[in-house]
Batch of 3 targets.
Target 1
Amino acid sequence: MKPSILILHASGVNRDAEAARACELAGAAPEIVHINQLRRGERKLTDYPMLLLPGGFSYGDALGAGVRLALDLQVYFHEQLHGFIDRGGLVLGICNGFQALVKAGVLPGIRRERPATGLQAIEEMALRSVTLTENASGRFECRWVHLSVNRQAKASFLRNIEELIFCPVAHGEGNFQVKDEETLAEMEREGLIAFRYVDAEGRPANGVYPLNPNGSVADIAGICNRRGNVVGLMPHPEDHIVTLQNPLGCTGRLGLAIFCAMVAAL
């Protein structure tokens, strides 16, 4: 049987259909599930081996990109979500989904001896060591970028991706920043950086616009947690899953590779 993937939908999310198609091409059986179905208990995370939070503008980004969805994850689904992750379930957050995971403190995660609950879980949202903020350009960025995959990242399934990824970004708040240099060094040391912006030859973007489209520190385009089963990235790999979508008419470097690698790990 094909592995099932829960694709979470909330008001304002608009990339769920594209994410579902990418999952199908990767050999999975995706199901788009509204967040209210989870709240009513009609679906449970334990029914699936993988959760995907797609892009869009959840709740219109009224409180900031991904913030309201992050509140939902912490208030209504904290125990269910963290239990899912602790049991080894895979999670992928794309663009707004990545923002929600970061704002909820799920990425890169907080070291603790026991899971946080209730008020402590909400307080941790204000104690994040990383964030995603407004693009350095001060405007919405919609352009194609190249990504290199860190094959030494804790997300071990990324080691199966050997070539660069070419796909678009479409965001106003994709600027990944860290609390301090110590945080960045720790992320480097522990293999929490999963994707970086590079040029077409795979050379570091070195913060140069538009290779690095948003000003992210150390050209970080995506990260993972310490266990390696939660991954988030700002670019949209679901928008380059067939060659026909390539604006340059070139072959290869499909974003589909990310979905194939994750599905193979299920």
Note: The first strand starts at residue 4 and ends at 9.
Target 2
Amino acid sequence: MHIAVVGLSHRTAPVEIRERLSIPEQTMEASLQQLRADDQVLEASILSTCNRLEIYTLLRHPEQGIEAVSAFLSQVSGLAVGELSPHLFTYHHEEAIAHLLRVAAGLDSLVLGEGQILSQVKKMVRLGQEYRSVGPILNRLLNQAVSTGKRVRTETNLGTGAVSISSAAVELAQLKIGQARGLDELVPLDQEQVAVVGAGRMARLLLQHLQSKGCRGVVLLNRTVARAEALATDFPQLPVQCRPISDLDHCLSTCSLVFTSTAAEEPIISAQRLGPLNRRSSLMLIDIGVPRNISADAATLPGVDSFDVDDLQEVVARNQEARREMASEAEGLLREEAQLFLEWWDGLEAVPLVNRLRTQLEEIREQELQKALSRMGPDLSARERKVVEALSKGIINKILHTPVTRLRAPQPRAQRHQAMKVLQDLFELQEQHTEP
């Protein structure tokens, strides 16, 4: 068995590639079933966010398994494997484990130390369990990643003041508006007419940061107005007008700054939509949705500036250096957690040998038990038979306890191999090979 991860992220692929590999929750079950249908994929779990798609697997054979996962990604994206492969990364075993722990800790995020990724890893674990695509190996690894992410945030300073994609988007607006005024600094948003399209978690964070940056009011549009109104109640100090998505054209005509973060799989704003509108002289669009909510051609119109998640790098670079020092605190914890999992994994190596020993002792126990019961004659009661059988099972369990515990305990691999060899020779526990 072999642990591997195949995927892409903001580090390896532009947004136009990432959006073709975004897997929404409503299709996650079918995607996991499709992966597991290949006999090379023993266990699988998918992490799909705006900045990454990663498939964690337990494979029967590394090469054939990676080919199966690559073929799945090709089918999902509609891109040939040759077109897709330059954007993919593949990590095996120790590297795959280390990568997952870095992701859960926020060390591989666009915004170093961001907290939202941990909840997304938790969601990956929940869906893998719910759809029965993970088994004992990935289940342990993924849960350890979650606990590691929590540990990093409680035992280091990395989570202190951590920013999110949403806060970076607001800072990008401040920076670009400042640059338009000839200033190289973040300016308040008190002069902007602002709209937010969507009412999910990202929209909540947008409202939170817009409020802290001096915004005087927001138009919040959503397909379900009641959901927008429920979100608005959490921001009593920020005037929020809740409108249906059908009012989008009106907002695009009257607002100067529009953020989009919806689950739409096709763009909802395009040059074709913007062209006929009687817009004000300038309009800034900031899209943090993947797949994108705003088509690339929107920026070709005069007076329209359009940005997507890949444009956040400019803002992130301004405060990344200070956070790198905090990240170094977390690296030692990640090495500890990775070693714990690898020691547990190494202990699994002894399981087939232990099972053969248990089977052999169980056969001996059963044979000797039947001999003893036959000598005792028919007068032995059912209760007495159960007592004798429980006694024989208890003796076997006591004999097995120490060698099993010692074999599974953390120890150097050479030492475990030596102990396994001794046990195998003493009890003649040669693995049985059957003809194909």
Note: Residues 165-313 form a domain with the Rossmann fold fold (CATH 3.40.50.720).
Target 3
Amino acid sequence: MKLARLRRDGDHCGAVAKLAADREEDIYIRLEGLSYLAAVCGRAPAEIFSGYLDSPDDQTQLESVIAIGEVGTPEAVEVLSGVLGDSTVPYFLRSAAAWSLARIGTETAISRLVKSFADIDISIREEALGGITSIGGPAVPILLSGLRGTAMDVAAGCAEALRQQAGLPAEVVSDLSQGIQGSTPSDWAVWLLGHLPRERVAPAIVGLQGSAPQLYYAISLLWSFMESWIARRWEVYPGPVGTEAGNAHGA
């Protein structure tokens, strides 16, 4: 069934449908059959997987999310997006949905992962970040769009995802450099340029020394930090700080 799905061989829809409906059959065989039926035979993932997604067994729910990811169709992306975006769904299922969307890697799937940068659950944001980073180049245009948006959490996630891309193309660096030279430069675009290698960015922003010296100084300062020895061991909060520490001291 897996081979037939990968080959998009539609000659087995009837036989696979019988296997998938056989309650005596192994659960993994049935789920593999459902993936085939949805990917090749045009069955709706939301309909045929519903009983498994609603199963009282956590493992069955998890395997069904992964099986939907194997389908890879726009309908499957829609179902996975629903799981990922539902804050009432357990974390392990939302995490599996994020992983599956990253494996699918279509524009819609990437956009849904980017949207998760604003999720209330920080762990889901981190799952989305890891998934987008694994996609690589195809995610870059969508990340650039999110970087320029008004949602700060999304822009922050996009900046970090772009920073983690292995070797951003020169045209992307040039595009970022041009984008910050307007009247309202994106804070996260400036942050990103300051976290990219100096030798790749400096030629593109050399004109800022005259037109926007403060902006050039800000990026240069970030470079100085990133190139310094302290950057290797730098922590946001190196010790117990903030309200909790204060309360503990007061107690």
Note: The mean pLDDT is 91.
